[in-house]
Amino acid sequence: MIQMIGISLALLNFIIIIRHFIRHLRMSDAKAEAARQENQDILDSVSEGLFLLDQNGVIGAGHSKSIEEIFKTTQLTGNRLLEVLKPLVPEKSVMGK
């Protein structure tokens, strides 16, 4: 009987801990989503061409809508900046040619 009570209390404690963890996880997810949405709203409202590059020159998912007009493409995310610029720059403008 004592073992059953002990096991039941341990199980109850485990459930309480899991519920607490899940609640904090949901709150963190909601905060992260709110921040992401705020960043996207800012990027959507600026008239300047803003985008992020990683160390390899690849354009990130966060970029302003106006940059799509500047580069004349909506396929920016995941592409290298040089590849996006290539159709916009005349061949004889490139250094060394």
UniProtKB/TrEMBL annotation:
Q: Which UniProt key words apply to this protein?
A: Membrane, Transmembrane, Transmembrane helix
**What's the domain of life for this entry?**
Bacteria
Regions crossing the membrane: 6-22
Name of the featured protein: PAS domain-containing protein
